[in-house]
Amino acid sequence: MNSSFYNESPACHCEESSDNEGKNKQHYRKPIESKRGRPRGSKVSGTKKEVIDLRSLLTRCAQAMANNNTATASEFLKQIRQYSSPYGNATERLAHCFANALEARVAGTGSALYTALTSRRIPAAESLKAYQTYVAACLFKRMSNIFANKSIGRLTREATRIHINDFGIHCGFQWPCLIQGISLRLGGSPLLRITGIDFPLPGFRPADGVEQTGRHLMNYCKRFNVPFECNAIAKKRDTIREKNSGGM
């Protein structure tokens, strides 16, 4: 259980990690490296890999698209395709994704590309694995969730009802920690209502994704005896009005 949820600041493990680091340094010994010459028959390559500023190419391609200069944009796309790859380093992979989007913009197939991507239903288990990898690589997301949840807990310490409007809720991975935290409140948990808002899915069940998220959160709340209500909204964000979120 997260017994420190209502503390002013999250627990710091800096000292513990530094002690462990010191112990590891004491037991670490640099391996003995064997010094050998260059293998026979090998040659020192004198060619250098050409350095390309993919960020600049992407920016100039986007500017050409904004000016309706499709010929110039297509030339930039050819260069970007030459130096980007879905299997390269981080910059090359990112450039590959942006190149796909720009190419769809040039060809006028952006809507079809979006429909094809959204029609593939990604299971929650796969989304969770991807989210865990993302949080492990980028601590900013984890820390923002921690401080947001703790701020909500601190500001609603004596409230009997909590209403959260979550734009782009997706799978709602942020909220299990909050649910577990408010379940520790003395005197019982407050009523938690989450209005989950996300883009509609194509097909006959546009709200299927956000409704599934609501069911997952409902099961988690039952596990920790937290009264829960979910309002699932599958609409474009510019069409959302205050009355859609409902009242407490």
From TrEMBL:
Belongs to the GRAS family. InterPro entries: TF_GRAS. Residues 52-112 are annotated as: Leucine repeat I (LRI). The keyword Cytoplasm does not apply. Keywords: Transcription, Transcription regulation. This is Scarecrow-like protein 14. Residues 212-244 are annotated as: Leucine repeat II (LRII).
